[in-house]
Each structure stands twice: as C-alpha cells, then as structure tokens.
Amino acid sequence: MGVVTWLLVGAVVVLVWAYSRRCHSYWSSRGIISPPAVTFLGHTHELFSSQRRFFVDKFYRKYRRHKIWGAYEFLSPALIVADPDLLKHFLVKDFEHFVDRRVVGDQPGSIMSKVLSNKRGDDWKELRSLMSPTFSTGKMRGMYHLVCEKVHSLVSFCLKKAANNRPVDMKDMFNRFSMDTIASCAFGIDCNSFSDSQPIFAEKAEAFFRIEGLRKMKFALMVTMPRLYTALGLKADTPEMEFFAKVSREATAAREKGRQRRGDFLDILLEARDAEDGLHSGKRVLDENTLVAQSVLFLMSGYDTTAVTVTLASTLLARYPRHQQRLRHEMQELVKEHGSVTYQGVMEAKFLDACLNETLRLYPPGTMVERECTKEYSVPGTDLILEPGTLIIVPVWSLHHDPQYWPDPEEFRPERFLPKNRDKIQSFTHIPFGMGPRNCFAMRFALMEVKAALAHLVLVADLQLAPGQEELRFENSPLTLRPSNGVTMLLTPLTEK
Prior knowledge:
This protein starts with a helix and ends with a strand. The chain is α+β, with helices and mostly antiparallel strands and 497 residues long. It contains 18 helices and nine strands. A hairpin with a 2-residue loop joins strand 1 (68-73) and strand 2 (76-81). Helix 7 crosses helix 8.
C-alpha cells in the first residue's frame, strides 16, 4: 500500500474514533454518569453477552446512589433506571411516554412484524385490547382441564423414568410438558412428547432459544441495526418460527372447517376476529397473518417461560426439603378440602404462590425489561430531558438481588411473599414479567401451568437433586435465563397413608 492509501486509512480511523467519542459523550454532556465505552461498540458486547446481567449488576451497585445511569448500544444511548420510584413513573404513571418496546426483526411480510410485542402505538393498543380477554379468569378456568391432562402425563412419565432409583433429567421433562401444554391450549394439537423419544415440537422450540456463536452476532445486529440486518439479506424469521407458523395455519384451517370448540387460545382469537367489524380503512386488526403470528408468539414465549420457571422452582424445592415438605402439606390440605387439585385451590394456595414468586425473584426469566421513549419526557427529580427513541433498560436481576430490598438476597425464602409479609416488599422491586400495560400478556397462563405442575409433582414424589447437581449453570443466551445441560433429580414415590 502506498503512502496516500495509508494516510486515507488513518484519516478514516481518526474520523470514526472522533465520531464515536462524540456520540459516547451523550450522557456526560447531560450530567449522567456512564461506564467507559469501547470505541464504536459502546457497551454492545456486554449487553448482548450471556453475562450481561453481571455487567449491569456491577454498575448498578457502583452507581446505585445515582438512580439512573447511561449506556451505549454501538453509538445509540440507552438509559438504565435503577430506582423503584422512578420505575413507577416510567412503567405506569407516565406510560403514554413509553408505550413502545424495542422492535426486533420487523421485516415486511415477516411473522415477527405481526407479533404483539413488536406492535407500536395505536397498532399495539388495538391488538392488545382484542387479546386482553384471552387470559381472563373465566377463560383460564376453561383451559385448566387441558393443562391438567398434560400435568398427569408429566407426572406419570417422570415416575416411570425414575423407577429403580434412576436419575431423571427434569429440564427435559419440563420442556416436554411445556410444549405439550402450549400446543394443546393454543392449537388443540397433541404433540405426544411423553411417548416420542425425539419430540419434534420441543426440539424446534429449544433450537429457537439456543443463541450461540454466529447466531448471537446476527441477533445483536438485528436488534441494534435492523436496517443493516435487512440490507445484508438476513431473515428475521428463523426456520423454527416458520415451522410453528405452518402448524398454526394448518390448525386454524382445520378449526374453521370443523368449528369444533375447545375454549383454547385459538378459539378465543377466532372469536375475536369474527366479532371485529374492522377499523379505520376497513382493514382487520386480526387478519390471517396477524392471528398466526400471535399463535406463534404464544407458543414460543409461553414454552420457554414455563419450562424454565418450573425447572428452577423444582430445583429450589429439591435443594430446600423443608420448604418442599411445607408445600406438600399445603397441597394435601387442598386436596382434602376440594377433593382434587382444582383451579381455584391452586390459584389461592398461599405457600405455592410464595414459592413461585421467590423463584422468579431469584431467577427472573428476563434479566432486563425495556421500553422506548415515544415523546419528549422530563425525568422526575432531575434536569434530564429524554428524547424520543431513547431506550430505557430496567435492571430486573439487580433489583431482585439488591440487599437493600431483600435481606440475604441469595437465599430461597418463600415466606417473603406470604400475605403477612407482602407489605414489606417495596413496589417495583419484583418485576419478573414487567409491569404496567406492556407487561407479559400471557403471564397468568404461565403461572397457572407452573403451579399445576408443581402441585401435582410434590403430591406424588419427593424431589432430590442428583449428585453433582448442587450448582446451577446457565446457557450462553442473551434472550432469557435458561439452565444449561440437564437438571437431574431423583424422584422417590410417596406412599399414600
């Protein structure tokens, strides 16, 4: 290379460095503290790594007194809000300024462009209002028997696998249970995961959530630079999403042809679509592609949330036999009162609810929650004015593990969430599914699944961790907190007295 070429390269490098430095002074110029940023990358390499909760937590503890602090995704600023009182404003009180979430994979014609979580502004409000009745108490009660059918299959299969004191991979068992339940309640499809040695539905879902190596880099690019991602010819919809979209279309066509009602998620969506008169220009909010996309969203997001939560809850109960026995006693009393593990009994069981909430405190499925500023906003108690488009990050993991709010935060203490102690919990320090109008819309259904599975399991078997399972390890995934490898247990059937 000649001297002129080297000079040009050097000039470009200097210009990039100078521009990066200017962009990375966004927060300091506004009096907001921020960790040192890497040229051009900012903090992207940390925020999209499997260790991002620890990166955020390190600065959460360092900057706690500041309540808010800045970060950068490449050259774009993001604000991390660590104060519960401010979170009440961002997520609830001043929600009209933070209606939107970050859009992920919004390519024209893609499944991702139609899912509820990617909808913005009025489009989100219209679709959410149509879907809100999906998980009402009446609808949930109507689907409970479908959940219990899969719970009974789970319990029977686990006990069969555990015969002769054999260790059972409970992560695999709960993956199968979650997929069977979602597929049944979403589409009326029987996956037969407990009779198939290679359950295709669960395998497809697992593949979707396994984000490693090159796929992690592509995911970070899709999230932070969607236009460049599309320009490179990369697809937002994965093969797994296309597989489930095909399943959804086939299930919808069969349901419309037969019109046999099951009271499941698909029935409810079809009812909402049929009742819709059309809005504005006559276009339906729930057109065919949007309906398919919500089914895929319910299946994919519901699968992982449920499987991970019930895996971690059972692991903690196996690790703490005292709490497991107390829960078993509560379930035995429930059966005496109601005759079986009923919907009402499960949803009203206080210690079961406490165990689940404490599990979600220790291991929130999503370690961070995000919102996007949609119109100029003055942050209460500060001189900071947020500009539209600024990303807001809520450090859920850090709030859940802060000793200021949770004494001995690494200990599993379900009693924190018993009714007598609820008033000791500061608002907006326990937000495993988000908070406010844009929280997880299928949260109540996921909790019902987990409660039903745990209730039945502790009634029939004593759970013990297999040797070598004392420490939980997690996958290298930027999406959700997911146990890596298996979670192996020994299940000892209980003798009825």
